[in-house]
Specification:
- The chain is mainly alpha-helical and 400 residues long.
- It is 54% helix and 7% strand.
- The strands form four sheets. A three-stranded antiparallel β-sheet has the order 6-5-7. Strands 9-8-10 form a three-stranded antiparallel β-sheet.
- Helix 11 runs antiparallel to helix 12.
- Pfam families: zf-B_box (PF00643), zf-RING_UBOX (PF13445).
- GO terms for molecular function: zinc ion binding.
- This is Tripartite motif-containing protein 2/3.
């Protein structure tokens, strides 16, 4: 049956883990929603893979770190404590009541509710279009059922035998009576007359049933075996998917751990570099402070000598003037010589940072790395066919 309404259930109502309709939907803080059982199994598998007790876990879709409401609880209880997504539950309930639109009206850009479903046309019909459908001779023998009844009936538990029609698809007024082995086709009398006159290997259905009755009876057991094979393949595929999911998660964890360790290494290099730089900085600062103090001390001596010289000039004798002059020259030379010993030290002229060549190369890197994939064909067609039809001989296949 066509999809009911216009709601995209695949996107809204599908669990990203099991890819089936959500059951007891639980939401993470990042707003991604999962089945309670699925997110619970994901948490436990993540803890098992890490081989240690977790205090948080990543979202299976966006990898956002989720901290449980009660981190001290067992990891098996974290899923149950997640908030229930009542919005999704409500939408899922409402979607069940969305009405099916008539397909014929849609082609005419009209909207009307369909009440009937034609199994042969595989289309929904409103009451008006149902009448038009019935008037046409080509569709007169089509099987039409109520949509409500169709929705409420389980095909597996109560199959509709009207789906298996014995009417000829070419000549609707005739019944299928024979099977042509050369063309592998079911035929009515008109088909045999018009299209299979030259065919030699034709057998009546009644005769085939008598000859192959035991094979027809074995169909149920054969289908059961095929069903078991399909169920095994589903479990096998799910297991393989889980392995791949865990592998991708492990690769992501390794990449994150590498970046974290790289950051830690760079931080330690930065601390060591700044420590060495600050030692040099402090030494240079001390040298500059010493020079400044020496200049200030020298300036004080000179200013004192100026003051004394002025006083002697104004109030002293010539004798005192000469003595002061000689002593001042000698004292000035001594002070300048003493200061020059302090001032005559090496200072850094220019400074610049020369990064390690390896770090410079890292700065130019445009990718963390590349994924190496070893691919294989998911299924071998011949082997796949043998798995499902290993008990059928060619003759078995032909009669069905």
């Amino acid at each position: 049956m066509a999809t009911v309404g216009r709601i995209n259930k695949q996107d809204v109502f599908t669990c990203p883990i099991c890819l089936e309709t959500l059951k007891s939907p639980k939401s993470l803080p990042c707003l991604h929603t999962f089945c309670e059982t699925c997110i619970g199994e994901f948490i436990l598998s993540t803890e098992k893979r890490l081989e240690k007790q977790m205090s948080d876990y990543p979202c299976p879709v966006c990898r956002t770190v989720v901290t449980p409401t009660n981190p001290k609880d067992e990891a098996s209880q974290w899923a149950a404590s997640l908030p229930h997504n009542f919005t999704i539950s409500s939408l899922m309930d409402n979607s069940k009541s969305v009405k099916q639109e008539c397909h014929l009206c849609q082609r005419r850009d009209k909207i009307s509710e369909a009440t009937q479903w034609c199994r042969d046309c595989d289309e929904a019909l409103c009451e008006e279009c149902l009448q038009l459908h019935g008037f046409m001779k080509l569709f007169s023998d089509h099987t039409v059922v109520q949509i409500d009844e169709m929705n409420s009936v389980s095909i597996v538990e109560d199959p509709d035998l009207s789906m298996i029609s014995d009417s000829c698809p070419v000549h609707s007024s005739k019944v299928l009576e024979a099977f042509c082995y050369e063309h592998q086709e079911l035929c009515c009398v008109l088909c045999l007359t018009l299209q299979h006159r030259k065919c030699e290997n034709i057998q009546a259905i009644e005769e085939m049933l008598k000859l192959h009755k035991h094979r027809i009876k074995s169909l149920e057991s054969e289908l059961s075996e095929i069903k078991e094979t399909i169920e095994y393949k589903i479990e096998e595929t799910r297991s393989e998917k889980e392995k791949k999911d865990n592998t991708f998660a492990g690769i992501e964890d390794n990449a994150r751990q590498f970046i974290l360790s790289l950051k830690a290494k760079l931080e330690s290099l930065l601390v060591l570099f700044l420590k060495e730089m600050n030692l040099t900085h402090n030494e240079q600062s001390f040298e500059f402070e010493s020079k400044i103090k020496t200049y200030e001390k020298l300036l004080t001596h000179i200013e004192t000598m100026q003051c004394v010289t002025k006083t002697v000039q104004e109030h002293g004798s010539l004798n005192q003037m000469f003595i002061h002059f000689e002593k001042s020259k000698s004292k000035a030379k001594s002070i300048v010589k003493e200061a020059s010993q302090v001032l005559n030290t090496n200072l850094i002229l220019e400074m610049k940072l020369n990064l390690c060549d390896t770090l410079t190369e890292v700065e130019s890197v445009d990718s963390l790395g590349k994924m190496d994939f070893t691919s294989t064909t998911f299924i071998d067609i011949d082997e796949f066919t043998r798995d499902f039809f290993q008990h059928y001989t060619r003759e078995n296949i032909r009669i069905f």
